[in-house]
Design a protein that fits this description.
With about 180 residues, the chain is mainly α. It has helices at about 1-15, 20-25, 30-160, 165-185.
Length: about 180
């Protein structure tokens, strides 16, 4: 605006008569009318042809952008659903793995218990057989000792008495001696 006002001031000062300088700046009336008509024609052409084409282009561009935004939103939603499904599957897989590990631990514990029970049973059987064998061996040893003690007793007694005992007295004496020995143990 300061440029325009300075041009008007300059034009008024340049011309000697009033308004002569202003005519230097302002165009002729015919030129002004034809310029106005040309401007209006250009404006009509632009309103009828250019602006609708520009609006269509802008609307198409807006539709493309909107379509891409919707597509991006669908892709984001789909990615979120996929991520959620993956997380659920991962949690489910972890749960199954934990269940499998727990089952394996329970099976191992049960198997260990069975093995320990069988081992204890076998140990009890071995111990029972060993006791039976020891008891049988002890019985045999006792019988052998009785027989040996009886023979030795008779020999000792016959040497002491210097006479032979009859078998009935001999048996009674041996039984009495064995019973006395058994009472000491």
């Amino acid at each position: 605006m300061p440029l325009m006002s300075s041009l008007i001031v300059f034009a008024t000062e340049a011309g000697g008569e009033e308004g002569a300088g202003l005519r230097l700046v302002l165009p002729e009336t015919a030129e002004l009318v034809w310029g106005l008509i040309g401007f209006l024609l250009l404006l009509v052409v632009m309103v009828k042809k250019v602006f609708p084409a520009m609006n269509r282009m802008l609307e198409d561009r807006q539709a493309q952008i909107q379509g891409k935004l919707e597509e991006a939103e669908r892709a984001r939603t789909e990615a979120e659903n996929t991520r959620r499904q993956y997380a659920e599957q991962l949690a489910e897989a972890r749960g199954e793995a934990s269940g499998i590990v727990d089952d394996a631990k329970a099976s191992a514990e049960r198997l260990r218990g069975e093995i320990v029970a069988r081992a204890e049973e076998e140990a009890a059987q071995i111990l029972a057989r060993a006791r039976e064998d020891a008891s049988a061996e002890r019985g045999r040893l006792v019988q052998d000792l009785r027989g040996q003690v009886a023979v030795l007793s008779v020999e000792l007694a016959s040497k002491i008495v210097q006479k032979e005992l009859d078998p009935a007295q001999h048996r009674a004496l041996v039984d009495q001696y064995i019973n006395e020995l058994s009472g000491l143990n």
